[in-house]
Amino acid sequence: MFSGRKKRCEVGEVFFLYGPSGSGKSSLGRELTQKLGLNFCDLDAEIEAQAGKSIATIFAEEGESGFRIREKQILQQTVAARPGVVALGGGALLDPESRALVTRQGDVLCLTASLETLLERLHQEHDRPLLEGDRREKMIHMLGERSGHYDSFSMKLDTGGLILEQAVREAQIIMGAFQIHGMGLSYDVRIKKGSLKDLGTALRVRDLLGPMVVVSDKNVGRLYSGRVGASLRKVNYEEYGMLFPAGEVNKTLETVAQLWDVFVRARMERKSTVIALGGGVVGDLAGFAAATFLRGVPWVNVPTSLLAMVDASVGGKTGVNLPQGKNLIGAFHAPRLVHVDPEVLSTLPDVELRNGLAEVVKTGVIGDPGLFARCQEGESAVRSNLDELVRRSIAVKIDIIKEDPYENGIREALNLGHTVGHAVEMVSDFGLHHGEAVSIGMVAEARLSQRMGLAENGLVERLTEALKGLGLPVQIPEDMSRDDLIAVMKLDKKRAEGKLRFSLPIRVGDVQTGIEINETEVVELLG
Ligand SMILES: NC(=O)c1ccc[n+]([C@@H]2O[C@H](COP(=O)([O-])OP(=O)(O)OC[C@H]3O[C@@H](n4cnc5c(N)ncnc54)[C@H](O)[C@@H]3O)[C@@H](O)[C@H]2O)c1
Q1: Which residue, 73, 99, 190, 391, has fewest beta-carbon neighbours within 10 Å?
Q2: Which residues are catalytic?
């Protein structure tokens, strides 16, 4: 049974692993528990512990029906106990009441594997009463009977052919659940469609304190602050709101000063919480205001644009612009929770969606060939799989920031496409949107990489096709002065002693950081 904090968990914080014997529920569950910093419960082990006898003995003495009664009782106690990971027995959810109970309390991931894999994994195990006798025959029969049942769960993972580490990573991506350690604390990342209405509960479960100040811009606030407010009130939080006009031009110290003012009026204390509800501008501003108010108060990031979800929501970078340049003032201040509801992307304007898509492609190139392959499927496939793209992109970003929280090394890979892209954006006088500029920048940098003999053959073409398929531009405009581009790149932070510093793609899934090239060479290479 779970131990630890005693508060009752209300919604979506129990991760159930289900599926036939041998599909990996217990081993995956134990590992997942470590990754998520949660408690683990193996239901069969709990049944044995409480009964004081083995499952084989329970079956022998009480029959399957006796076992199922025990199983159901212990399941009820378990889900009422705590957030955690629960490995269920292979038939635990055949009972409709049990199924309704677990789906109310959390998410079920159904693990599958081929018959041969299941039999091979069960080879050493003897205490399997339902498989006694001819195991192969029994397993074929059981899978035949239950295949429709297992199939009916929407979240599924075939664990065949995966080593444990891969299976756990895939499980985390499917369930949209991660935990990040860094900057002196651990924080959870949760990605789930429709979860905005459960934000209040997610904060309560994590013992975050009010008053809560919800910071948003006027576009997002108009659409979603009502839903967030209701979820906070439902769990008795005192809540305040602050809306500012949308747009990068408002990412200033003046807006931060207005936020501080609201924090004072809301009588925020050291442990009160700021909630950033919006795109990257809101996250950067609210995160920075939280980092600096009372020398740092907790904040929670609820990103609502695709770009903010995939590129800005995790990592703890916060900041504002100065008239002299973007993001010149800032602080590393990790959020206490990143709560992502991809459903809100349905209201995101197209141009903003495309800004985010360029970052999704970038993320695929940096660290996930499967994600890049998804992006190659074109705009309509991508639009209908946004939820998965968000989960996969965030997984890659988490891998990177775990390795390099303060941007001293590999995190530079995230600059892919941005050295040229930033210059293109500036020289176009922001006529090109950020995502469009990054798209152009990625192709230019891939070309640079190819001309230097670094990128594998065909990379430029594959990248170009993928980006074009998403409606993104790929060419530096003919009439854009190359000298102006170099002049802007020279001002960039990523410059050292007459050389420009790039993160260049080698192949999909491999980006090399810290490549320094002479300015003159860059002009030639850009063509
Ligand atoms: N901190 C980081 O690690 C990091 C990383 C990348 C970018 N950034 C920053 O992020 C900012 C860009 O983020 P952005 O592209 O999200 O810009 P943004 O916050 O300005 O949002 C873009 C527009 O979309 C609207 N919007 C957002 N979500 C919406 C929704 N669900 N429905 C309808 N409208 C919605 C906003 O109101 C805004 O008009 C930049 O300031 C950049 O510096 C920060």
Answers
A1: 73
A2: 295, 317, 359, 397, 407, 411, 415, 418, 422, 434
